[in-house]
Amino acid sequence: MKIVISIIRIVVGVLFIFSGLIKANDPTGLSYKMQEFFEVWGLHFLNDYTLAFALIMNAFEIVAGVAVLLGWRMKTFSWLLLLLIIFFTFLTGYALFSGKIKTCGCFGDCIPLTAKQSFIKDLILLLLIVVIFIARHAITPLFKNVVSTSIVALTILFCIISQWYVLKHLPVVDCLAYKTGNDIIEKMKIPEGAVSDSFAIKFKYRKAGKEVVFDSDHFPDDFDENTYTFVDRVQELIRPGTATAPINDFILYGDSGEDTTLAILNQPGYYVMLFTKDANQAETGWTKNAASVAAACFEKKIPFFIVTATTEAARNQLPNVQNVQYLKCDATVIKTAGRVNPTYFIMKQATVQGKYANVDYEKAIKLIAASQ
Question: How many Cα atoms are found within 13 Å in the side-chain-facing hemisphere of 96?
Fold first, then answer.
């Protein structure tokens, strides 16, 4: 029985450490996933705290995994693990059975799992942790208390430093569709052989104070524009597709509101895009850094674009900087493409040559200087 318990501890400990490390690589991504749940539940007031929740949860997963492997304070951690896995199972179960959340983010963007896969994983983990919980009194520590405590303390320190680093410098391992080396246009295409979502267009009218919905093949026999008042056109999903494009919502708008996405991505040679979802919330000193990058682009005759959801705010903060063109883009798309506000993309046609956080702008300048 001791061997079985030891194997279960290794499996649970390694899984928790692995899960925590993957999410700690991109805590901002986990915070966005939490916001998705809070939006569905109507808990909008918690959105400002999701990053703090993500940092704590990632650290706890890693520390709990280490504690299980060490057999350190198992009476306490067996309770904490049991409560945590019950909570995770509730989340994945909600995502699966409600259909309101497509993925749970259990392993971040690096290993995307469907809601069903996540729920099954958590059910298995729940069973394993229940076994650990029952046998918690029989588990003996691997090392003396001072050694185990030191290892756990070092683990906490590692969690703090590593998550601080990626929040400032972008994830160490970029698992996003916008990572260096990817062709954005190619990522906007649905995988070969996949079937797209099928939609039906329906029309919503009002007659005698009541709303009536019908499609183009089923107009009411008594339809008359004098008695039916048009309300809206509704797009209804009738058959989900088998796959979606990794990037399906990337649209760049020019000053007059025109879609300039393909024109920008297909331009020859190098260019730079600075992504900032909200110029008013960008990191301190970003304007000075952006001015330096713009000057480097000007010297190499490379176009420099600022892609933002707040074009006017960006213009106001860079009033005297030349060689800057402004493009409008959805804030959700921007925060997906670049985890740090702002993030520099060095592009060659549609391919990402390099991604750099605001604090690493000098690396962006070096790549620009080396471009041909």
Answer: 17
